[in-house]
Records
---
Amino acid sequence: MLKKILSNTIVRLLLAVAIGLSAGLVISEPLLKIVLIVKQITGQIIFFLVPLIILGFVAPSIAHLKNNASKVLLFAFGLAYISSIGAASFGAIVGYELIPYLRIETATEGLREIPEMLFKLEIPPVMSVMSALVLAVMLGLSTAWIRSSEMERLLDAFQQMILKLVERVLMPVLPFFIAANFCALSYEGAITKQLPVFLSVLLIVIACHYIWLALLYGIASVYARKNSWEVLRHYGPAYLTALGTMSSAATLGTALTCAKKSKILREEVIDITIPLFANIHLCGSILTEVFFVLTVSQILYGGMPDLTTMSVFILLLGFFAIGAPGVPGGTVLASLGLIISVLGFDEAGTALLLTIFALQDSFGTACNVTGDGALTLITDTFESGQTKSGTEESKIS
C-alpha cells in the first residue's frame, strides 16, 4: 500500500517540494554544491528531451490529421494569441485598479549567495525548442499533404520511442530536479526573505490566474458543449510539476499524461495541442508580466504607463509570448526588448522586474500548463467539426 502511494505522481512531487524546502534551511555549503550538480544534470537531461518530445508527438499527430492539418494549426495559433492578450488585458485592468492602493517596499538585498558549482555537465539539445516545433509542423504537414504511409509509420515508431524515454527517463528524474530547485531557493532565502515583501502582489496575481483559468474552462464548456471539469480534474500532477520546474517545456511529459486521462479529449489531438500550446500559450506568464510591469513602474517611476502605451505593449507581447522559450523566465526574457523600448524601463526597472517575476514564475507556468487543457478541448471540438464537414462534403460530391 505504501509503495502504491509513493508511486503516485502527486505524492512524489509534493514530497520533492517538501524535502527540497526543508533541506535548504539546514544544508551546509559543501552539500549544497552536490545538490546544485544534481539540479544541473537533471535539468540538462530534461531540457535535452524537450525538443525530442515536441518532434515525437507533434509531427506524427499532424500527419494523421490529413486535410485538416493546416486549418487546425492556424486555429490553435490564433486561439493561443487571443488567450494570451486576453489574459494580459485582464492583468492590466486589475493592475490599474489595485496597484495605486498598494504600498510595497522592495527588499532584494540580503540573500545568501549560492556557491559556485564544482563542475558542469553540458548536454545541449540537438535543436532549440522553436526549431523542433517548426520542424515537427513541417514534417507533419508535408507527410499529410503527400499522404505517405511509410513516413507515417516511421513517425509513429519515433513517437513510441519518445514515450518510453518519457516514462523511463524524464519521469524518474523529475522529482530530483524539483527537490534540488526548491532546496536552492530555500538556502538562498528567496522564499523566506523576498516573498513576504511582495506577498500582496503575488496573491493578487495568483487569484487572477485562477479567475482566468475558470474563464477559459467555462468558454471551453460552452464551445464544446461538454463538461470541461472532465479535463481540469486530471491536471493536478501537471500543475504541481509546473510549480517545481517553472517550465512549460519541462512539464510536457506530465501534461501529456494528465490530458490523456480525460475521456472527452482525443489522443490524436492531444499529441498535437499539448506540445504546441506548451510553447505558444503562456497566458499565466503574460498576465503576471503585465501586472508586475505596472507594479515596478509605480514603485520606481512614481506612476504607471498610459493606456495607449500599455495597449501597444500587450499586442506586441502576445506575439513575443508565442515565440518565447518554454523555460524558466522565458516570457520576460524574450520581451525585455519591448519592456525597454516601449515602456522605457532602465536597468533598475528590468532588474527588479526579473527579480519579482522569478518569485512567482512557478505559478505563472502552472497557469500556462493548466490552461492548455481548455484550449485543447476547444481545438478538439473544432477539429471534429472540420472532419465531419469534410466527410459530408465528400458524400455530396
Note: Residues 20 and 183 are 4 Å apart (CA to CA).
---
Amino acid sequence: MRPLDHATLSRLMTHSQRLKHLVNDLYELSLTDLGGMTYRKNTMDLAALLQESVSSMQAQFSMQHIELALHLQNAPVIIFGDHNRLQQLFVNLLKNSLQYTNAPGVTQVTLKSEQQQAIICIEDTAPGVAEEHHEKLFERLYRADSSRNRTTGGAGLGLSICKNIVIAHEGKITTSNSELGGLKITISLPCAKDHL
C-alpha cells in the first residue's frame, strides 16, 4: 500500500479523470455508431461558431506557449448544423492539436467557402504524423506510433467521434501534412442551400 499523501491523491485524481474521459468518449462513440446521438440542426453562421470555439481555447493555448490563430473570410459562412455538436467537433480538434504540438508552436484555423462548401482547416507546427498513418487516425483506439504519440495522450477515440459528427452533417474530414510542419485536418461541410 502507498502512503496517503498529496502526491498519491494527485495521481489518483489524474487517473480517475482519464477513466472518466475514456468512459464519456466510449459512450459518445457508441451513440454515434448507433445513430443515437441527437442533432438539433439550424441555419447558423459557421464563422461565429469557430470564433466562439477558438476564444474558449485561447487561454489553454497561451498557457502551453502555443499561438492559436484564426483566419476568417469577410462574409458569413452559413450552414445547416447543430451548434453544440459542431462546437464539440472544433474543441476536440483544437485539444488534439494542443496536446500534440511542441511548444513554442502555432495552431492555425482557417475558414473559407468554395464551390458551395464551407472548408475548415486546422493545422499545427511539429511534430507531424507519417503519411502511412493518416488514413488510420480516424479509426477507434488507433494512435500513431510517432512523436505525436505521447504518454499523456488519449485513448484514440476523439478523432473517431469527430469523424462521426462530420458525417452526420453530410461532410468530409481528411488529414494531410501541414506546411507548418505538423498535421493538417481539413473539414468540408455543405453550405445552406438558401445562402449559396
Note: Residues 6-34 form the longest helix (29 residues).
---
Amino acid sequence: MLNESGLQKIEQINAAMNSYLEQNIFTEYRDSYVYVERELLDGSIRRGVVGVIDLEEYDYREGTASRIRATEETVKERIPARKTIRENAALELSHVILLCDDEKKTLIEPLTHSKHSMKKLYGFELMLGGGKIDGWLMNGEHARAFNTRMNSYIKRKAKELSLTFAVGDGNHSLAAAKACYLDNPSELSRYAMVELENIHDDALKFEPIHRIVKGVNPEEFIAEIQNQICVKGWTSSKNSWALNYYSHGKKGIIFIDKSKGASALIVLQKYLDERGCDIDYIHDTESLRKLADESGCVGFEMPAFDENAKRDFFSIISQSGVLPRKTFSMGHAQEKRYYLEARRIK
C-alpha cells in the first residue's frame, strides 16, 4: 500500500517523464531491438535482446496454458502498488528478464558475431559493482533475421511443450503491466518491454534459496517428513531425490519420493505449506547452517541449479505450473538487470 508520500513521488516522476518527452531528450528507434552484452564481475558475458512481449500471451495465474508464464508463485498483494506506479506513467523502464529454452543456442548467440555491423548505442561501467554493459541497435536486416530465428524457435517449442517463454525476474512488474492493459486497453499498453535471455547461457547463474523451519522439535519433524514425503527405507534410490538438512550442528539426508511431484523443492514446499510451518528463506549455505543451530530449527539445503536443472526447468513448469515462491535467485543482487532503455506506453 502506497502512502501519501509515495503517491506524491509517483506524481513527480510522471511529471519528469512528461517533461523529458516534451524536451525531446530521448532518441527513438522504431521497429528495433537492442542487443545487450553484460560483462559480470567474474568476466563472463551474459547476452540478451531487449524487445517487447504481447501481454495477451502472458498470464501469471496458476493452471494457465499461456505461452508466456511466471516461473514462481505471484503474490497478488504486490500488484496494486506496482499498478499505481505504472498506470499514469508515460514511459516504462524495465528490469524484466524473460527466459527462452534454446538449448541449441540458435536464437540470441549468433548476434555475438554480427554485432560489429550494428550501431553501438552505449558501452560503460555500471555502478555498485555491476560490471560492464554494451548495447547495439538491432534493426533492418538484423531484426528481420532475428524474427526469422524467433519464429523457428516458437514453432520448435510448440511441438515440445505448452510453454515458450518463462519470466525469470520482474514478474510482479509484468503482472502490473497486464492489469493496466486490462483496465485501459490500447496498442501501446498491450505490450511490455523485457530483456530476453537464454536459460542455457553459461553466464546466467541461478542461486538456490534454502529453507529454515522454525518452532519445531527437529527429531520429530524429520521423522514426520520421512514418513510423509520420503521413500520407504529412507535410503537413496533412482526413485528419490537426496536433500541435505541441518539441525543442532548435525547434517542429515532425506530422500524425497519422486512420485510425490516434479521436483524435491515442489514436494517439500507443498508439505511445509500444508503443515503451516514458520519458514525463513536463506540465500547462503553457511548462513543456513548457522541458523539451523538455533533451538527448534531445521535447515533444508536446496540443490544447486546446475545444467541438468536448466535443461528440465521448462518441462517442470509446463508439467506442474508455477514453481513455489522463493525457488531461486537469478544471480546475485549486483547482477540484476539495470534500468537503461525506456519505452513509451502512453
Note: Residues 258 and 308 are 16 Å apart (CA to CA).
---
Amino acid sequence: MANDSVLWGVDTMNAPWGLQSRLKLVALACHFFNANKTAESHAAIGKSLSAEGTPGPLTVLDFLKYLEINKTFSKTPNAIRVAEIVERMASAGLLVCTGRSSGSIAGLADHYLYMPTVWEARRALFRLVPALGPEYLFWLCAPGLVHITGRNEKGNAVAGTGLVLDPHHVLTCRHVVSDMKVDGTQTIQGREYAVNDDSLYMHTDIDVAVMRVNGPPLSPLEGVLFQAPVLARTVYTLGYPKLPGLREASATMQQGAVTNEAVTSLAGEKLFLYSAISRPGNSGGPVMSDDGYMVGLSIVDATGRYDSDDAFAPHYAGIPAQVVVGAVEDFGLGIELQFEQYE
C-alpha cells in the first residue's frame, strides 16, 4: 500500500469535500464492498484470495488502494476522511462492519461488506440519504418540486408547491389549486405545460389534489417512498414559500421534527404536526424525513389564536403519508405510490 504521505500528505484531498465528491465516494464504496462482487474487488487491487479460495471482506485500506489504482479522483482521497465516511455508511446501515482490527488506525484496517437487498433497490439513490445528510436530500428532491402559480380572487399573483409523481402528474394540496385561478401555463422542470380546469383532480374530503400535464414526460423522483410520520423524527419541509424582494421563485428547505404523529382538526381532517417552518407557498410541498422518506404534505400552520400574555409556540400541520397515498388512489388515475409499512 502507498506510504503515509500519499494517504494524508499535502498531495491528498485534505480540504473539506463537497457533496459531489462525497456522493462519488459513497457510490464507489457500495460497489467495492458489494458482497456479491468480493472476488471482483480482490482482482481489481491484485489481492490474493484466502487459502480456501474464497474472497473475504475487504478493508478501508483495500478501498483506498482501489481508488488509487483507478484514479477516480484527481488527488488521492485523504485516508482519514475516507474512513470517516465509510464509518458513517456503517452507522446508517449501508455497510456492515464484519471485523475490527485492534491495531487499526482510525478504522483503516476494519473490514466491511455491502449487502444489497430488493428493499434497498426500490429506494434507488434515496437509500444514501442517511449517509450523505440533508444537503444531499435537497439535491435529490429539488428537481421534482413544482412552483404552481395563479391568481387569487383579488387578482393578485399567488403560488403553492407541488411534487412530480410520475411522467404526467403533479401532487399538491387541494386548497393550493382551489384557492386560485391556476395559470394556464405552468413551468415544470424547465418546460412549459398547458393546464386547465379539466387537468385538476381535487379530492372531495381530503386536502389533496393532482394536476395532470400533457406533453414531454416529466422526471419523477425515482426511489422516493412514502412512510407514516413518527414522533420526534427529524423532518424537512421543501417548497416555494413567498419570498418578497427576490426576482425568481426559490426552493427552500427547513428543518424541524414531528411533534405529534396523529391529530384531528376541528373539521375532522387526519393530520400530523411538526416544527419545521411551513410558510405561505409551502403548501403542497413534501415533508421529508431525515432518512429520505416522504412522510406527508405541508398544508397550514396550526398556531391558532393566542392571548397577548401567552407564549408564541407555533406548530405546523401536514397530511400524513398514509392519508396522501389513500387519497391519490381514490382518483383512479393509475398512479402507483409506494408506501412502506413498519414491521
Note: The CA atoms of residues 300 and 315 lie 9 Å apart.
